[in-house]
Design goal:
The complex is a heterodimer of chains A (111) and B (110). Chain A is mostly beta strands and 111 residues long. Helices cover 0% and strands 50% of the residues of chain A. In chain B, strands 2, 4, 5, 9, 10 and 11 form a 6-stranded mixed β-sheet that branches. Chain B has a 5-stranded antiparallel β-sheet with strand order 1-3-8-7-6, with no helix packed on it. The chains are: A mainly beta (111), B mainly beta (110).
Chain lengths: 111, 110
C-alpha cells in the first residue's frame, strides 16, 4: 500500500492563480480531510469528507473548494490564490474512528 | 469549539532522559490521538487513545477522559524522538473534525 499520496510536494503560485492539490489513498478509507499548518498554529481543518459524494467545511474553508467523486481521491482546489494561503497542506484519511494517516504534505508559496 | 492546550511548549532533553507531555482539553471527547512530526515534516500517528493506557516500545500514553487530559510518556529518549508532538481531539469519535493543539517541540541532545 502506498498509503496517502499528495502531489505536488512544492508549488509556487502568483496571487490570483488557481490550482488543485491532489490527494489519493489506497486503503479504502471512508474519511478524508485537508489541513493546513502554519507556524505556531498547529493544524487547522479546511474541509473533510465522510464518504464519496459527501463533503463539509472545517474551521478555515474560505478560498478552498473540494469534491469527493471516488473513495480514493479528495482534491483541494484553490480558486484564486492569496498570500494568506501560503502554508503547508496535509491530506489525511482513516477508516471510521481509528488512527488518522497523513500524507507527506504540499508546501505552497503564494507571491 | 473545543480547546486543546499542550504543555510545555518546548522541551530540551539529554539523550537517555525521560519526559512527560501533557494535553488538556475543554470538553468531553470520544477521540484523542497523539502524533509526532519529525524534522522532515512527516506526521506519524503514535496513539489512538480516547481513554485508558497504551504502550508502544519506549512510548506510552494515558488518557483520563473524565478529567479531560492525556499524557504522553517518552522513556530513554533518543535523538530520533526530536520533533513536534501534537495532541488532537474530536467530540463524536470519528475523524471528521479533529482539533489539534499547537504542539510541543522536543529536542533531544546527544
Amino acid at each position: 500500500n502506498a498509503g496517502v499520496t499528495q502531489t505536488p510536494k512544492f508549488q509556487v503560485l502568483k496571487t490570483g492563480q488557481s490550482m488543485t492539490l491532489q490527494c489519493a489513498q489506497d486503503m479504502n478509507h471512508e474519511y478524508m480531510s485537508w489541513y493546513r499548518q502554519d507556524p505556531g498554529m498547529g493544524l487547522r481543518l479546511i474541509h473533510y469528507s465522510v464518504g464519496a459524494g459527501i463533503t463539509d467545511q472545517g474551521e478555515v474553508p474560505n478560498g478552498y473548494n473540494v469534491s469527493r467523486s471516488t473513495t480514493e481521491d479528495f482534491p483541494l482546489r484553490l480558486l484564486s490564490a492569496a498570500p494568506s494561503q501560503t502554508s503547508v497542506y496535509f491530506c489525511a484519511s482513516s477508516y471510521g474512528p481509528s488512527p488518522l494517516h497523513f500524507g507527506n504534505g504540499t508546501r505552497l508559496t503564494v507571491t | 469549539g473545543i480547546q486543546v492546550e499542550q504543555s510545555p511548549p518546548d522541551l530540551i532533553l539529554q539523550e537517555g532522559a525521560n519526559s512527560t507531555l501533557r494535553c488538556n482539553f475543554s470538553d468531553s471527547v470520544n477521540n484523542l490521538q497523539w502524533f509526532h512530526q519529525n524534522p522532515w515534516g512527516q506526521l506519524i500517528n503514535l496513539f489512538y487513545i480516547p481513554s485508558g493506557t497504551k504502550q508502544n516500545g519506549r512510548l506510552s500514553a494515558t488518557t483520563v477522559a473524565t478529567e479531560r487530559y492525556s499524557l504522553l510518556y517518552i522513556s530513554s529518549s533518543q535523538t530520533t524522538d526530536s520533533g513536534v508532538y501534537f495532541c488532537a481531539v474530536e467530540l463524536t469519535g470519528a475523524n471528521s473534525k479533529l482539533t489539534f493543539g499547537k504542539g510541543i517541540t522536543l529536542s533531544v541532545r546527544p
